[in-house]
Amino acid sequence: MITRVAPRGLPALLALTLWLAAPAAAQPSGTMTWGVHVTLATKWLDPAEVEADITPFMIHYALHDALVKPMPGNLNTPSLAESWTMSKDGRTWEFVLRKNTRFHNGDPVSAEDVKFSFERYRGAAATLFKDRVREVQVVDPGRVRFHLKDPWPDFMTFYGTSASGAGWIVPKKYVEKVGEDGFRRAPIGAGPYKFVSFQPGVELVLEAFDGYWRKTPSVKRLVLRSVPDEATRAAALKRGDIDVTYLLNGPIAADVRRTPGLTLTAMRTNGVLWVEFPEQWTSGSPWADRRVRLAANLAIDRQAINEAEALGYSGPTGNIVPRHQEFALAIEPHPYDPKRAKALLAEAGYANGFDAGDLTPFPPYNGMGEAIANYFAAVGIRTRLRTMERAALLSAWRDHKLRGVFVGATGSAGNASTRLEAFVTSKGGFTYGTIPEVESLFARQIQEMDRKKREEMLHQIQRILADRVTFAPIWENGFIRAFGPRVEESGLTLIQSFPYSAPLEDVRLKKQ
Length: 512
What we know:
Shape: globular
Number of helices: 16
CATH architecture of the largest domain: Roll
Largest sheet: 11 strands, mixed
Mean pLDDT: 93
CATH class of the largest domain: Alpha Beta
């Protein structure tokens, strides 16, 4: 039996309904509009709030800039910093800032802003940074040094990629002047686009910043519009109400692929989706029994869900670390074997199955969640489908308030160490429980400068997690996007493994 709990968001839904009821009109000249698959959250305007999720970076690449960030052809690309060096002992990193970079209010980007942004940061890996960075020193307005307590081979993996938002810079004077709430209402960044207006949950409007150091953007105005319903996004793309859309699945994606004038594209991203068993750490819970977790893995036909939901673009996996990331161990998924799943449940004392409570999908992958619920029900694991908005789910996950089972996901960049830190260690913001052997290995590998030794320890951690059946990994995400006939360059394939349009200063409309 599957029941649904409707997400909160009536104001956004009402605004969307009014927009859909309006007559279709051509996009204004110089404006490019995205139909975004999630409800836009206010916290995504602030890099300090980045969680272990890639979604906020669709905004950060427009509104903000980082010292170093993934760009076309390079995971660690000089941006607000033109260069950086590491000391011989691995304990000091110095960044030289690019000259003549400015925030949208005209203030220069300085080392004080870098120090302030880092110390203000409270998102993914914040605890790890605080544990490992002894001091941030302003050498002069154009140079800043990070002094570490010990050598940390992953410093740039965390600081210079989307594994965290700690390297994205905000203006110290402005934030101190307007306060935290004032900054979220009217954020100022150093990115290629500046803030115009924001209706929480509905629409973000940005305007080209002609003072951006890399280049003046070609498109004068960007509009990011929340359109959570997939069929509505596809219809809006066909009508020309939007130019680019994210996350199309199944029959709707196939229909868009067949539509003349529309271009469908998919990318295997850093994203992995998996079933999380938070109650495996609770004594007496059915999920505390490895046989039950293994039965849940065997109950899921991953390839069937892949074909139905992702047109086969995703890759079924047995690991929460994507294969292409450094130090990843390729682990095959458990086979679909409902007969063995039932036998394992009976062996564990649940011959008649059991009530597992809520099953919460990771939004907007609700179709995947419903399919998993049906596969579980077929072997006797009874759940109730409960849907939530993404920001609410992430907050509940971070606060350890999600019970039953839920689909976890992340698309952050980095390597096996950065991925595991967030979800399986005591330092991770999304960790429900830890394994002592994993904790010990993780603490050792994070200080190991010998790459081969690190790899061996990280592979061992991944084997332990797989042997224990800590998760039920589903797939490495094949993220499906599409764009319409006005678009010359969508930016959807420029940065490796990045699911969204970027760099946004590179997107172009066709000349009319």
